[in-house]
UniProtKB/TrEMBL annotation:
This is Transcription initiation factor IIB. Keywords: Repeat, Transcription, Transcription regulation. It comes from marine sediment metagenome. GO terms for cellular component: transcription preinitiation complex. Residues 32-113, 126-207 form the Cyclin-like domain. The lineage of its organism: unclassified sequences, metagenomes, ecological metagenomes. GO terms for molecular function: TBP-class protein binding. Residues 11-22 have a biased composition (Basic and acidic residues). Residues 1-10 have a biased composition (Basic residues). It holds the Pfam family TFIIB. Belongs to the TFIIB family. Residues 1-22 are annotated as: Disordered.
Length: 226
């Protein structure tokens, strides 16, 4: 009986040793990928440290077993960017990763759910000026895009949707209305989103607004975008 107890104790110690070795090897691979992606995305030190912390939590909670290390690294980076309000879109992070956009997005959703991470919610309005600036659109077009989003927000049409995709769709709608022509691909790239997302959000906005665009008083002062 004593021999059996000793054998079980040795077995447990051996299992713990194997787990520690696996974790050490996992972290070594993950931190190398984190270094590479941080450099490519030009991330500040605090974002890199936050991403490493999130990844270690994922490892401790055994979320990574049987899943891609690189996908969890990319997801941890995106979560850190969201938490610290550093502007890097999921598309940008996925592009810098070795994994596909769809896998990174799915892993990110798993990560924030299981670790109970609550990143601040971005409003689509705030993305309009920067996207408009990249595109060089006219100010009336930019203002109409903001009003489109305000009107859709009043009708509860923005909840749960990707804010960059909504901003891109509103700008595309405004460009069409004002004959300030821009193709979807260019707008999507400027917004850091995909053409598919832009088209989906565009159809959603048209449905919410019932194909009726808001009127804009272009002589009035520009309202502060929240």
């Amino acid at each position: 009986q004593e021999t059996q107890r000793r054998m079980r104790r040795l077995q447990r110690q051996d299992n713990r040793s194997k787990v520690n070795e696996t974790h050490t090897r996992n972290l070594s691979i993950a931190m190398a990928e984190l270094d590479r992606m941080s450099s490519e995305l030009h991330l500040p030190k605090n974002v890199k440290e936050q991403a490493a912390f999130i990844y270690r939590r994922s490892l401790k909670e055994d979320l990574i077993r049987g899943r891609s290390i690189d996908a969890f690294v990319a997801s941890s980076i995106y979560a850190a960017c969201r938490l610290l309000k550093v502007p890097r879109s999921l598309k940008m992070v996925s592009k810098a990763s070795t994994r596909e956009h769809s896998e990174v997005a799915m892993t990110y959703r798993l990560l924030i759910r299981e670790l109970d991470i609550k990143p601040p919610v971005d409003r689509p309005f705030k993305f309009v000026p920067s996207i408009a600036s990249k595109l060089g659109v006219k100010q009336p077009t930019e203002r109409l895009a903001v009003e489109i989003l305000r009107e859709a927000d009043k009708k509860k049409g923005l909840a749960g949707k990707d804010p960059r995709g909504l901003a891109a769709a509103a700008l595309y709608m405004a460009c069409q209305e004002n004959n300030d022509r821009r193709v979807q691909r260019v707008i999507a790239e400027a917004a850091g989103t995909t053409e598919v997302t832009l088209r989906n959000r565009y159809r959603g906005l048209k449905e919410v607004l019932n194909d009726e665009l808001p009127t804009v008083d272009y002589q009035a002062p520009v309202a502060t975008v929240q």
